[in-house]
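Course assignment 3, question 2. Fill in each field.
Student: A.L.
Task: Predict the tertiary structure for the chain below.
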Amino acid sequence: MPTLRVKPTTNARRKMSYLKFAGDKTKATKSLVVGGKRNSGRNHAGQIVVNHKGGGAKRKYRLIDFSLSSYIGKKATVKSIEYDPNRTADIALVEFDGGELAYIIAPTGLKKGATIACDEKTTVRPGNRMKLKNIPPSTEIHNIEMTPNRGGQIARSAGSFATLLGRDGDFVQIRLMSSEVRKVPAEGFASIGVVSNIDHSKVLIGKAGRKRHMGIKPTVLGKSKNPVDHPHGGGEGHTSIGLKYPKTPWGAPALGLRTRNKKKAGSKLILSRRKK
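Answer field:
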């Protein structure tokens, strides 16, 4: 999908760009759409626990089938490639042999009218889904299961993928885009190909109002706040933070501190950590 620059009619639009959507401009399938309440970063008590969230355009949630476990051994035809306001990747509406409809994450190169399959072993072709133990090494995959039958959890955003390196007993080794190498169960499923909408990261937002439509409120520097609101707050004017190292609003060290819990069950499956 190419990025298009807009005419510089105002200063705000001078560097603005957007993606030219190449899919089908159709309404979402009613049976696969649900409404939802937005919390705007607040918890059950109404306290803000995630900053800078709120507002934005209304949008309904498309029910994506990340596992396709109900359709093993079946083939499906791609009815349309659609835009999803809830994610960076495009989605594909597929119809299975029995007439059942489902939304899946669309990989790059998947076209309307194409046929995909979900089975323990099938052809290595974008959109097909099969068990990791049956996928050849060096294949680019996405929507990878970390736990069998739980649904894909790795490599689901625009342009993302993982490379299958090889089999290691009951596990396979994959290399993520972050350069991390980890093991995942060989009995889990994964989809073939790279997630669509590769040019998503090249879009220039251009103006603040466009961010507000996305549901993102203005970000305020910690040193612009009061001491009660942030460890960097207080002082006369825009002074330095006055601390040995920067901190989060809750006082934990920021910038560079590794926060992953080493006691996590999945930590032993990481063979090589990502580089900073």
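Instructor remarks: The longest strand covers residues 74-82. The mean pLDDT is 93.
Grade: pending
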